[in-house]
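Exam revision sheet. Question 4 asks you to relate a sequence to its structure. Input first:
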Amino acid sequence: MKIFREVGIAVLIAIAIFVFLQFNIQSYTVRYGSMLPNIKEGDWIMVSKASYFISDPQRGDVIVFSPPFDSPHPYIKRVIGLPSDIIEVKDNKVFVNGIPLEEEYTMAEPDYEMQVIEVPADEYFVLGDNRNNSNDSRYGWTVARGDIIGKAWFTYWPAGRWTVIKHYGYPELSMAGEPETAVSHPTEA
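Answer key, structure tokens:
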């Protein structure tokens, strides 16, 4: 009788772990080279679906999402613009709110121009790291918050490519957005 109880407990623990993992992580195979040089076609990646349960995507995150048009597969891109940001591509640079991004992680500088757009509320502007060979937001679409599946976490196959996927910050934007400090001295009466 004791053996049945122990086997039953082991099965319940295995089911609980399986359900937990199904709700929190998922694996995907990258189908195209739009994220070169960082993520290659054929890479198997793990995606954290729980990353955005209590927080929103941040600029520089690599996300997996359902595109806003018919596609048999989810897309993977980098978040460049947050809701209400102003985005423009000119002079081989991506500009966010008028500030050019320093993007050392891309395959090459963008060789195209894109008119100024404002990212709609509750939506995100995304670009592939392979700027010149990516179906991304430069074509006039953005990603709704509800269509984001999760944050790309790491590459686990092929074995020689095992690596944590890098998410970048943009210090040039945070420095520009910091409020100026005003110093005042009390006047003596």
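Marking note for examiners. The CA atoms of residues 83 and 121 lie 5 Å apart.
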